[in-house]
Amino acid sequence: MQQLISRSYTNDWIGIQYGVVYQLDDGSKWKIIDSRCRIGNGFRKKVTVTKCGGKYRLAVEGDRKKYEVVPMVLPRCAPVPEPKSLQGKLMACLLADLQLQTQKQLP
């Protein structure tokens, strides 16, 4: 099952190249580790990052392929999946509160 990690926009877009790091509007940074190369250019491309089976995949507006990435900085507002049990809901509340407290302490 895929989990949505980020849906945001890039600033400058130079295409897919191994080692390139993109910073998205949500504050996250993703490093391309896919060996496939796709040259392109543009500004404000819509990007979606999903996680499935422990791997992160980046999809770019206008490109049907998904490219493997690693997080350098995770998004400020990462979506939290809705838990099914009461224990899971309590844990989700604690994690959300911890994330807010951590954000307040960062410069």
Summarize the structure.
This protein has one helix spanning 86-105; strands spanning 3-9, 12-16, 21-23, 29-32, 38-43, 46-52, 55-60, 66-73. With 107 residues, it is of the alpha+beta class.
Description of the molecule:
- The longest helix has 20 residues, at 86-105.
- It contains 1 helix and 8 strands; from the N terminus they run ββββββββα.
- By secondary structure, it is an alpha+beta fold.
- It folds into 2 domains: 3-76, no CATH class; 80-107, no CATH class.
- The strands form 2 sheets. Strands 1-6-7-8-4-3 form a 6-stranded antiparallel beta sheet, with no helix packed on it.
- The chain has one helix at 86-105, and strands spanning 3-9, 12-16, 21-23, 29-32, 38-43, 46-52, 55-60, 66-73.
- The model has no long low-confidence stretch (mean pLDDT 76).
- It is globular, with a radius of gyration of 15 Å.
- 19% of the residues lie in helices and 43% in strands.
Q: The biggest beta sheet, please?
A: 6 strands, antiparallel
Mean pLDDT: 76
Q: What is the percent of helical residues?
A: 10-25%
Q: Structural class per helix/strand content?
A: alpha+beta
- State the oligomer: single chain
In one word, what is the shape?
A: globular
Strand content: 35-45%
Distance between the amino and carboxyl termini:
35 Å
* Low confidence ranges: none
What's the helix-strand series?
EEEEEEEEH
How many helical stretches?
1
> What strand order characterises the main sheet?
1-6-7-8-4-3
Please indicate the count of domains. 2
Please report the total strand number as a whole number.
8
Rg, nearest Å? 15 Å
